[in-house]
Amino acid sequence: MTDEKELHGYYSGLRSKFMVIIFFIAFIPLMLLGGTTYYYYSTTVKEKIGNELKLITKNRKDTIDLFLNDRANCISVLAYTRSFDYLKKKENLHNAFQLSKRVCSGFQDVGIINSDGEQVAYIGPYHLTGKQYSTAEWFQEVMKKDVYISNVFLGFRKVPHFIIAVKRVENGKPWILRMTIDINRINHFMTTALLGKGGSDAYILSREGIYQISGADDDRILTKSDFKMPPVFQGIKGKEKHYGGKTVLCAKTWLKNNDWLMVIEQNLKYELGPMVRVKNTVLLIFIISSFIIIISTILITRQVFASLEKMGLEKLQLREQLVRSDRLAAIGKLASGIAHEINNPMAVISEKAGWIGDLLTEEDVKNSPNYDELIKSTQDIKKHVLRGKKVISRLMGFARMEDVAHKNVDINSVLDETYDFMNKKAMFQNIALMKEFQTDLPSIVTDKAQLQQVFINIVNNAIDAINKDGVIRLITKAQDGGVLVSIADTGPGMPEEIRKKIFDPFFTTKAVGKGTGLGLSTSYGIVEKLGGQITVESEIDKGTTFHITLPPSCTQDTEV
Amino acid sequence: MLLVDDEDDFRTTLANRLKLRKIDVTDAGSGNEAIELVKQKSFDVAVIDVKMPGIDGIETLKQVKQLQPSIEIVMLTGHASIKSGMEAMKLGAYDYVMKPCDIDELLLKTGDAYQHKLLKEKEK
Hints:
Helix content of chain B: 40-55%
Strand content of chain B: 15-25%
Radius of gyration of chain A: 58 Å
Low-confidence stretches of chain B: none
Oligomer: heterodimer
Low-confidence stretches of chain A: 556-560
CATH class of the domain at 403-560 in chain A: Alpha Beta
Largest interface: A-B, 26 and 21 residues
Distance between the termini of chain B: 22 Å
Helix content of chain A: 40-55%
Distance between the termini of chain A: 28 Å
Mean pLDDT of chain A: 84
Shape of chain A: rod-shaped
Largest sheet of chain A: 5 strands, antiparallel
Mean pLDDT of chain B: 86
Order of helices and strands of chain B: EHEHEHEHEH
Number of helices of chain B: 5
CATH superfamily of chain B: Response regulator
Shape of chain B: globular
Largest sheet of chain B: 5 strands, parallel
Number of domains of chain B: 1
Strand content of chain A: 15-25%
Radius of gyration of chain B: 13 Å
Number of strands of chain A: 17
């Protein structure tokens, strides 16, 4: 049925829309909840790590600044409490150096340089006495500034180191006390800054971006870093950076009078374990909830729409039935009116023809050459009046159905009679009539004669539809206390347009004069009157099946 | 025989045909006319159309039966249902014939009615 297909399509479309809407309604809050939970948790964790990192960085800055200041002070004290001449002597310098080392750790060697840049005395592991430093950067700087802490450089010894130099002017002549600082001491401060495991980094860069303290990786010392040097700022700055597929938190601060930039990086991958766990948990909850939502949505909408569709279909069928009943009633009224009006002129025509026939027996007419023709004509008129009478009689029967008899009827025996009645005709056209009866069928209260008319009508139509070679099955089945009779043929079936009209009065597919178009409409009226229902299924090239449902007892006769 | 039908063409033609078959027919165009005739003359059989303007066939049947209880009546019915025929038979009609009728069927039934009447008279 096209209407039913349309209805089905309509409901499927609506169902899909419904499901999508429910999905969204359920998913949006779920996603918001999961997303915000994860977002706030991860920000909190990152903030905590960031704060920790900043604290460590500040600690390192303070430590290193203090370390350098301490060393500078120590050297200053030494320079201002001893004279150039005193320290020039190797054993005096040696004693002073030992004292200093006892006070402050981290000194490697010591040297006294005169105003010309010549190292006049040296205590340490290298042979540097007499070396000329007048061109060295640190010499020129210290001559200007009195106290100078150099950057890391190789110097004569070709080993990375840095020095703290103090200038003292004695009797108008400047001289310099300088000591070398062990960079491993500072490197140690940096390596202890590393939180956790791999991926973390801590180092110090000069203003030019040269590695001063290399942290964990010794090879890069005095090489140029690709770190983008920020302008000088106060305090500590932290920020999240992404490079090489990893996310790091990076804290930086300027130290040593803004000469050096200390950078400590923390790879988040190793610190965010709890966060990943939260993320996974949230994701798991999300997936499980999604499943529940999807399954329940599908189940609920399916159930709701199945019943909706069923209701819609029932409504459609009811409407179809109502329309048909209405049409039948209207056509019935019209038919009976017409029948009455036509009956009288037909009676007159019949009588006149009879009268002509009577008169033709008179002697004088008998001699007419057209006598036989005239006789035949009156007979034809009679014949066709009779045909008209039959149509009218059936029309009247349809318009005003006979009263219903209430008797206990065994449907199988009624169909047996139908079988006996129709079998000859069917056999003649090589059609097999088959009985498929349920043997323990309940007997029902109904009108046997009228039911017989219905069955014969339908079987007759089936035989006409098959024409030659085929099968007609008469099937009975108990249903809801009543009986379901199905009459299935292997005929050519019929298209939707015809199927819709077959119960309409005067609709026929048979040749003119062969069918009145009233058989099925009358059958429909009868079955309806007996409280039953008649429906038809048909498939092109497969056949047609009529289903007649009969209730346990037909209702009291109501005028159609 | 008394033939009652409001359709002139039908009545006169049928009357002529019956006369041709040697039957003494008096025809009436309405129920009133028929009742008047029955008051004046006695008939063996009356053929009455059910559906007529004025007094209808059933009413005519009742009155005629009252006036002449011995008369046998065959109803002519346009209604193709057994219902009106059965109703008439309950009221005392002998039989009914459906219109348009075959003259032979009508002759058969009126003949039966006449025989029935003769039989009843003999019993008396």
